[in-house]
Structure formats: C-alpha cells, structure tokens
Amino acid sequence: MGSRREQQEFVRALDATGIRPVVDRRFALEELAEAFRFQERSDHFGRIGVAW
What we know:
The protein contains two helices and two strands; from the N terminus they run αβαβ.
C-alpha cells in the first residue's frame, strides 16, 4: 500500500514501460467470497481481480 501519489506514479511507470502485472484469476463481484477463499489457499501466482 502506498499513497495516492505513489499509485499514480506506479501507473505512469507501467504505461511508459509496457510492463503488465500478472493476473492469475478474475472473479465477478458475486463470487467475492470465492475470491477470498482462493486467496486464502495461496494457490495463486500474481494478482486476483474482482470485476464490479
């Protein structure tokens, strides 16, 4: 976690370099409980996304 300014700088750096974070899996908002269970199992590699 960081400040809003740090997040904005991070996003600019990603845009400038073309680096993209690894997204392991995406869940719908209705699957939020499953997303938390998935995270707790520590089976993921990269980010877990929730679409809302």
